[in-house]
Amino acid sequence: MQTTTDGFTEVSVKLDVDSYFSLSDFYKKTLILNKIDEGIVKVANEYSWEHDVFNRITAEIKERNYVNEYTWAQRSSPDRKYMAEMFCTHDIDYFSATLNIRDKKSGELIKSKKVLQERPHELVFTQYLGDLRWISDRTVAMTNRGRKTKWLVENI
To answer: Which tens digits make up the pLDDT trace of 49-98?
Structure first.
């Protein structure tokens, strides 16, 4: 176990790669969670951390049936008729972000545009997620961390 200069602690756990790739996506998720838990136990023991919080997170992942989806950001349109949301999905083989536009009153999906699909790695996709903002009553933009417009949904 070693702590890097950027504050991460590297932990080694054994994984039979051949058997991993023969598993279904669901069982890959269960195996990965078990390996993450194995690493967390090593770190928690090394730093004398309580295990309760990690156990609660593991239980929540299992309760959600290993589905990792969430709304990253939401913004109301200037005229308050629409709600834009960046909906994120983490899966075994990809991370995707979809820009959804909903009617604010009914919640009905008006428009949906998948704007990003990348191999899953939190340090890669976070560079794309900056600010979600409305440019007008009918145009919403997603900018990256450098504040350059990456995606537009127009004519809503």
So the answer is: 999 999 999 999 999 999 999 998 899 999 999 999 999 998 999 989 89
At which residue do the structure tokens 């004398």 appear? Answer: 48
Neighbours of 19 (CB within 10 A): 10
- The angle formed by the CA atoms of residues 79, 85 and 88, to the nearest 5 degrees, is 175
Instruction: Kindly list the distances between the CA atom of residue 145 and the CA atoms of 99, 105, 125, 150, in Å, as whole numbers in the listed order.
Output: 17, 31, 11, 10
- Who contacts 92 (Cβ-Cβ below 8 Å, separation ≥6)? 25, 28, 29, 120
pTM > 0.90: yes or no: no
Alpha-carbon distances of 63 from 56, 57, 58, 60, 91, rounded to whole Å = 10, 10, 9, 5, 16
Q: Report the candidate in 33, 42, 36, 38 with the shortest Cα–Cα distance to residue 2.
A: 42
Structure tokens at 71: 């709304």
Cα separation, 31 vs 126, whole angstroms: 25
What digits encode the pLDDT tens for the residues 84-136?
A: 999 999 899 998 989 999 999 999 999 999 988 888 776 666 777 778 889 99
